[in-house]
Amino acid sequence: MKEQITRRIFNGLIYVHILHHGNIGEFYGSWMIEELKEHGYNISPGTLYPLLKSMVEENLIEKEDRNVNGKIRKYYKTTQKGNKLLFELKNNLKELFNDIELQ
């Protein structure tokens, strides 16, 4: 049960992480996988790319295909809607952490 709850929380935080990095600048999928690994998230391409696709469809991030050394690489960045959501999520997380610290 504890592992399921931890996994659900981590999955939600992955969204925040993606929005955060897309707000800072553009990123591509394999870079994001490595970035998430550095923070303790073990996410496979089979999990990340459908998540990115759904975030594009929800207009939270946008995708641009670029030719890099003869291969098409997809670059992502946060949209205005995604930035607004990120701002709201950060405020919610700050409020939650402040409540937890006070108790």
UniProtKB/TrEMBL annotation:
Coiled coil location: none
Domain of life, source organism: Bacteria
InterPro entries xrefs: Metal_resp_DNA-bind_regulator, Tscrpt_reg_PadR_N, WH-like_DNA-bd_sf, WH_DNA-bd_sf
Pfam families with a match to the protein in the record: PadR (PF03551)
Record-annotated Transcription regulator PadR N-terminal domain positions: 18-86
Protein name in the entry: PadR family transcriptional regulator
